[in-house]
């Protein structure tokens, strides 16, 4: 059974249909890259899986839990899938440690000492144990993004959604974030990532989804998709003839 | 023109002045704490609250911000007893100040909330926090930090505006000054002294608020 089952999902913003019937199944432990031009709907799809956008038609089921837009269902869904954003979105008034502790204490009612232990462990996992007391302002973009990953991991999700998590970073900081993601993939975390890092998608992902104009245009193993793009749109996107 | 300054009355009337200071300080402390609390609640309601609540709060805010404080005070003290709601001068003064600061601080704090990047709400939501938890734990502190100077000024304005509560015989600093002046006929001396006391109180209050901000909001470790 697939961990994330997306079936015939449609999403409209006013008259503009952004997703025109998307179906993707993600198995547990899979690493799926979603690629495509801007405006192809890839970020919207990711945001729908996390319930940040409602869907107009179709269904999204995560580990047997149906996506419904009431608060209780949303909470259950979001406890299962964590999300990491392009702009990091760390809480500026809390330290790195505080960022990782907050939702554990507020949502899961974890006692402070336990939450702190988890936070230290998670920050250590992303190589930032020594930055526990640093404010987001005092961290580089790459470090902020790694704190954001630790923050999502602290909720013990069964899957992580990554929305262009390296797009706002200086080139020299991209590698440190991707290294963390690669490690997570190796540990068996289920990942769905919208990315422009084609080399990373090729090396780490088990499947690549090419989206075009609100549809899944091509889907397959990275070696197929990158080596033998079947459609002219994908060939053009990849810049190959 | 020769005028002999005489501050000799000061010693005799010192207890009256001190009582006035105490009442004014008490008014502003209660007014500030409850007023900002009310303002925060209203700011939440206006910016993020349920749809039915927004017009209710908007009506309250616009009503208070577009009428004189003195009239609001008279309404509370002289108007409400007609409905059977009676209270002492001090309680009426307190209530009027809380209601007044509540409306002004609502708009200031709302500005801080609405300047929050959307990503902060989304980050809170994606961590399974409810909308209210996200507001309370994620949005509020940075929002207050953004508008803290404006909010501090408003609190000082309300403190200075509290002088009008002497009009309903609440025995604040202005009431004391008027009382002393009527006894001694030393108008210049009485009002210069009370002016200086208000000045000192305002400076003190600003320092207090700055210190509170320093405690409330994170600072980079100084190196």
Helix-strand blueprint:
The complex is a heterodimer of chains A (241) and B (223).
Chain A: E1 4-13, E2 16-26, E3 31-36, H1 42-49, E4 57-62, E5 65-66, H2 71-80, E6 81-84, H3 96-107, H4 112-125, H5 141-153, E7 159-163, H6 171-186, E8 190-194, H7 198-204, E9 207-212, E10 215-220, H8 222-227, H9 232-238
Parallel strand pairs in A: 3-8, 3-9, 6-7, 7-8
Antiparallel strand pairs in A: 1-2, 1-4, 4-5, 9-10
Helix pairs in contact in A: 3-4, 3-5, 4-5, 5-6
Chain B: H1 9-48, H2 53-65, H3 69-79, H4 89-114, H5 118-126, H6 131-161, H7 173-184, H8 187-216
Helix pairs in contact in B: 1-2, 1-4, 1-6, 1-7, 2-4, 3-4, 4-6, 5-6, 6-8, 7-8
CATH architecture of chain A: 3-Layer(aba) Sandwich
Cα Rg of chain A: 18 Å
Which strand order do you get reading across the main beta sheet of chain A? 6-7-8-3-9-10
Q: Give the domain tally of chain A.
A: 1
CATH superfamily of chain A: P-loop containing nucleotide triphosphate hydrolases
- Segments of chain A where pLDDT lies below 50 for 5+ residues? none
Looking at the structure, what is the overall shape of chain B?
Answer: elongated
User: What level of helicity do the residues of chain B show?
Assistant: over 70%
Reading the helices and strands of chain A in chain order gives EEEHEEHEHHHEHEHEEHH
Descriptive tags:
heterodimer; A: 241 residues; alpha/beta; Rossmann fold; six-stranded mixed sheet; four-stranded antiparallel sheet; globular; B: 223 residues; mainly alpha; MetI-like fold; 8 helices
């Amino acid at each position: 059974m697939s961990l994330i089952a997306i079936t015939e999902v449609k999403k409209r913003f006013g008259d503009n249909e952004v997703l025109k019937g998307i179906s993707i199944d993600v198995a547990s432990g899979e690493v799926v890259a979603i690629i495509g031009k801007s405006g192809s709907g890839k970020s919207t799809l990711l945001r729908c899986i996390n319930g940040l956008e409602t869907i107009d038609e179709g269904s999204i089921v995560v580990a047997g839990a149906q996506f419904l837009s009431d608060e209780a269902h949303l909470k259950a869904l979001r406890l299962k899938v964590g999300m990491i954003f392009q702009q990091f979105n760390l809480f500026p008034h809390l330290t790195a440690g505080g960022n990782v502790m907050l939702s554990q204490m507020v949502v899961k009612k974890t006692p402070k000492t336990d939450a702190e232990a988890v936070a230290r462990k998670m920050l250590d996992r992303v190589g930032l144990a020594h930055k526990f007391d640093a404010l987001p302002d005092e961290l580089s973009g790459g470090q902020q993004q790694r704190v954001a990953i630790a923050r999502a991991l602290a909720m013990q999700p069964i899957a992580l959604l990554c929305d262009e998590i390296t797009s706002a970073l200086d080139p020299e900081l991209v590698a440190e974030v991707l290294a963390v993601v690669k490690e997570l993939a190796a540990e068996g975390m289920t990942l769905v990532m919208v990315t422009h890092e084609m080399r990373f998608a090729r090396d780490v992902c088990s499947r690549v989804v090419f989206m075009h104009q609100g549809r899944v245009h091509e889907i397959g193993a990275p070696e197929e998709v990158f080596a033998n793009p079947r459609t002219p749109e994908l060939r053009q996107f990849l810049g190959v003839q | 023109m020769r005028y002999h300054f005489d501050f000799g009355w000061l010693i005799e009337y010192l207890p009256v002045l001190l009582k006035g200071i105490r009442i004014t300080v008490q008014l502003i402390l209660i007014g500030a704490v409850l007023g900002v609390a009310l303002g925060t609640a209203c700011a939440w309601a206006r910016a993020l609250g349920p749809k039915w609540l927004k017009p209710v709060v908007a009506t309250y805010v616009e009503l208070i911000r577009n009428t004189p404080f003195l009239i609001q005070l008279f309404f509370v003290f002289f108007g409400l007893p007609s409905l059977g709601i009676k209270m002492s001068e001090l309680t009426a003064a307190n209530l009027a100040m809380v209601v007044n600061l509540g409306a002004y601080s609502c708009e200031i704090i709302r500005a801080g909330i609405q300047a929050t990047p959307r990503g902060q709400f989304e980050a809170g939501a994606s961590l399974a926090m409810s909308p209210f938890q996200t507001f309370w734990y994620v949005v509020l502190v940075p929002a207050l930090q953004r508008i803290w100077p404006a909010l501090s000024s408003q609190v000082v304005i309300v403190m200075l505006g509290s002088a009008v509560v002497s009009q309903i015989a609440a025995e604040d600093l202005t009431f004391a000054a008027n009382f002393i002046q009527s006894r001694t006929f030393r108008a210049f001396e009485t009002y210069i002294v009370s002016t200086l006391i208000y000045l000192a109180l305002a400076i003190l209050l600003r320092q207090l608020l700055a210190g509170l901000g320093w405690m409330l909001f994170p600072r980079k470790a100084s190196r």
